[in-house]
Design a protein that fits this description.
By secondary structure, the protein is an alpha+beta fold. It contains 16 helices and 22 strands. The chain has a six-stranded mixed beta sheet, with helices on both faces. Strands 13-14-15-4-22 form a five-stranded mixed beta sheet. Strands 7-8-10-9 form a four-stranded antiparallel beta sheet, with helices on one face. The protein is flat, with a radius of gyration of 30 Å. The two termini are 45 Å apart.
C-alpha cells in the first residue's frame, strides 16, 4: 500500500505543485494516473486518507474538483522511511532508494539521523542484519546468535570473567565435597512474570541439560542426580566421580536456568520464562524485541528496549550507518583452528598417507602464521621438520562452514593450495550448518574449522574435547562414548591440564586432529551503543553493551 501511495503521489507531483490549490477534473486525473475513473477515485481517497492530499470533489455535473497536494516527495519518503526504520523493516527501504534515487537518499539520511536520536532519547536500540533466530532453548542451540539472546533473557548459576575467574551469579555460594556439589540460590531472584525463581526451577533446568541431546550433553552426562538437600538447604549435584572442572560448565550460556513456566508466541513458539536483564516481548520471523527487566537482581540494563531485525542486508549497498561513542571496553577471545579427520570406509587413502600429509601441513604452519596475527598451536610440542614435499596420490574431500571472517577464508585457500602441492586432489563440500558436522560425515574426510575456547584455558580445553565441532565430526556414537570416558578418567588422575594435553596428543598421534593455529583477539566493543546499528552481520555481541559497568 505504501509503495502504491508513493508511486501515485509521484505521478501527481509531475503535474501539480504541492501546497497550491488546483481546479481539476476527473478526466484530467484519469490521464495523470493512466487508469480508469473508478480506480482514480479510489487512488484519491487513499492519498486523502494518508493526509498527503486534500481532495474536494466538485458538486454537480461538469463542476471542477479542488486538489491540493499537501506534501512533497521528499517529505513523503522521509515519513515512510522513518516508519520503516522505527519498525525494523529495513528490507523495505532499498526499493525506495532504487526508485526515487537522490530524493530517497536525502530522505533516508534525515530519517536515519532522527530515528537514531529518538531511539537514544528513549534508551532504545535497533540492530539490523541480526542473524535469524529459530531456537531459544539453552540446552538445544549451538548457534552463537541465539546464545547471545539467551544470555540476555536468562541467567546462569555462575559467571566467568575474561580472566577465567568464577563468580556466583544466581547462586550466592557453593561448596564441593568429593563428587557432590552444593549450591545455595540467591533469595531475591524475580522472574519476568513477577514470580520468584525457586530451587525446583533450577533442579528441573539442570535435569533437562542431562537428558537433552544438545551441545552440552557430554558435559552433563557425568551427572548422576540433581536434588535438594533438606539438611543443608541447598541444591545438590551428584557426579559419577569428582571433577574440579565441572563447576565451570554451570557458567556457559547453554547451562542457563529457565523456569518451569512458558510464554507463548505466534507460529506455535513457546519460550521458558527467564530471569535475565531483558525479557522477550516480541518474536516473529522478521525480528525480536526485548524489553528491560526492571526487577533484575543484578546490574540493570542500560537500555529499555533492543530490537533485533533480521533485515537490512540490501541496505548495505546504499548506506553504512553506526552510532559511535568513546565509551569502550576490551576483552580477549581465544580461538583454536584445526583439521579433523573422519575415517570414511569409502576413502581409499592409507593411514601412512594421512600421517605424511599431517606432518607436512604441521611443518608449514609458520608460513601462514607469519602473515597473520595467529600463533602456531604447539601445546602438544613443536612440529617435526619436513624439508621435502611428500609425493602423495588420491582424492580427499574437505568440508568447512561458510566463512564470514576474511582470515579464515585466506587460511582455507592457503591450506587447499598446500595440500595440492603434495599431489593430492581436493574436492570441497560445504558444511551448511556448522552446529551439525555429522551431516557431512558420509561425504567428507577432513573438516577445517575454528572453535572458540572458553576461559579459563584449562576448562576451555576440557569443554572442547567433549563438545568441539571436530570432535563430533570424527567419532561415531560408540567411539564418542569411549572418548568421553577417556577424558573423564584422565581428569580423575589429577593435574587436569597435563592430562587433557595428553588426550589431545593422542588424537594428533592417531591423525584424528591436526592443531593448526591459536588466536587471541582483543575485542573492543562500545558499552554505550545506542540509536541504530547497521552492520554486515548484525551486532551479535550486543550482550556486552547493555549492562551498567
Amino acid at each position: 500500500m505504501t509503495e502504491t501511495c508513493l508511486r501515485r503521489l509521484s505521478q501527481l507531483l509531475n503535474h501539480y505543485n504541492h501546497s497550491q490549490l488546483h481546479q481539476v477534473s476527473l478526466d484530467d486525473l484519469e490521464a495523470v494516473f493512466a487508469t480508469s475513473r473508478r480506480n482514480t477515485s479510489n487512488i484519491l481517497k487513499m492519498l486523502d486518507n494518508c493526509g498527503w492530499i486534500k481532495w474536494i470533489p466538485g458538486r454537480g455535473r461538469g463542476k471542477a474538483s479542488t486538489l491540493k497536494v499537501m506534501i512533497s516527495m521528499h517529505q513523503a519518503l522521509y515519513r515512510t522511511i522513518h516508519h520503516e526504520i522505527s519498525s525494523g523493516n529495513f528490507d523495505a527501504i532499498p526499493k525506495y532508494l532504487e526508485t526515487y534515487k537522490a530524493v530517497a537518499a536525502s530522505a533516508l539520511s534525515q530519517a536515519m539521523t532522527e530515528a537514531a536520536q529518538e531511539n537514544q532519547d528513549a534508551n532504545s536500540l535497533i540492530i539490523s542484519q541480526y542473524p535469524w533466530v529459530n531456537e531459544l532453548n539453552p540446552s538445544v542451540t549451538y548457534r552463537f546468535s541465539e546464545l547471545q539472546v539467551i544470555r540476555s533473557i536468562y541467567d546462569t548459576l555462575f559467571t566467568i570473567d575474561s580472566n577465567g575467574q568464577l563468580s556466583p551469579h544466581l547462586a550466592c555460594d557453593y561448596q564441593t565435597d568429593g563428587k557432590f556439589i552444593y549450591i545455595w540460590l540467591r533469595p531475591d531472584i524475580r522472574s519476568h512474570d513477577g514470580l520468584m525463581l525457586e530451587a525446583q526451577d533450577v533442579i528441573i533446568a539442570l535435569e533437562q541439560l542431562v537428558a537433552t541431546d544438545g551441545p552440552v550433553k557430554k558435559l552433563f552426562q557425568q551427572v548422576v542426580k540433581v536434588s535438594f538437600d533438606d539438611t543443608r538447604q541447598a541444591i545438590c549435584i551428584e557426579l559419577i566421580q569428582e571433577n574440579p572442572l565441572f563447576i565451570f560448565c554451570l557458567a556457559t550460556a547453554n547451562a542457563s536456568i529457565v523456569s518451569r513456566r512458558h510464554k507463548a508466541f505466534s507460529n506455535q513458539r513457546s519460550v521458558a520464562i527467564g530471569t535475565g536483564p531483558f525479557k522477550l516481548e516480541y518474536w516473529e520471523e522478521d525480528k525480536i524485541v526485548m524489553k528491560k527487566h526492571h526487577h533484575y537482581f543484578a546490574k540493570k540494563a542500560l537500555l529499555d528496549q533492543i530490537t533485533l531485525s533480521h533485515q537490512g542486508e540490501e541496505l548495505d549497498k546504499h548506506l553504512c550507518y553506526n552510532q559511535d561513542t568513546d565509551d569502550n571496553e576490551s576483552y580477549t577471545i581465544q580461538a583454536f583452528s584445526y583439521l579433523a579427520h573422519n575415517r570414511r570406509p569409502s576413502c581409499s587413502i592409507s593411514d601412512q598417507t594421512w600421517q605424511s600429509l599431517f606432518k607436512f601441513l604441521e611443518s608449514r604452519r609458520f608460513e601462514f602464521a607469519a602473515h597473520s596475527d595467529l600463533g602456531v598451536m604447539d601445546l602438544i610440542g613443536a612440529s617435526e621438520s619436513v624439508s621435502d614435499i611428500p609425493k602423495l596420490t588420491g582424492t580427499i574431500v574437505l568440508t568447512h562452514p561458510k566463512w564470514t571472517i576474511k582470515y579464515l577464508e585466506r587460511m582455507s585457500e592457503w591450506l587447499i593450495a598446500l595440500i595440492g602441492q603434495t599431489g593430492l586432489r581436493v574436492e570441497l563440500v560445504e558444511l551448511s550448518d556448522a552446529s551439525k558436522p555429522q551431516l557431512v560425515k558420509e561425504q567428507a574426510d577432513l573438516l577445517l574449522v575454528e572453535d572458540l575456547i572458553e576461559p579459563p584455558l584449562q576448562y576451555g580445553a576440557y569443554e572442547w574435547l567433549l563438545t568441539g565441532t571436530g570432535i563430533r565430526f570424527i567419532f561415531d556414537t560408540d567411539e564418542f562414548d569411549h572418548h568421553v570416558d577417556a577424558v573423564h578418567n584422565a581428569i580423575a588422575q589429577g593435574r587436569p591440564k597435563e592430562r587433557l594435553i595428553e588426550v589431545l596428543a593422542t588424537l594428533r598421534h592417531n591423525a584424528s586432529i591436526l592443531p593448526l593455529f591459536w588466536g587471541q583477539e582483543q575485542v573492543t566493543c562500545q558499552k554505550g551503543v545506542y540509536g541504530i546499528q547497521i552492520r554486515k552481520s548484525g551486532y551479535s555481541d550486543f550482550y556486552k553493551l547493555r549492562i551498567t559497568p
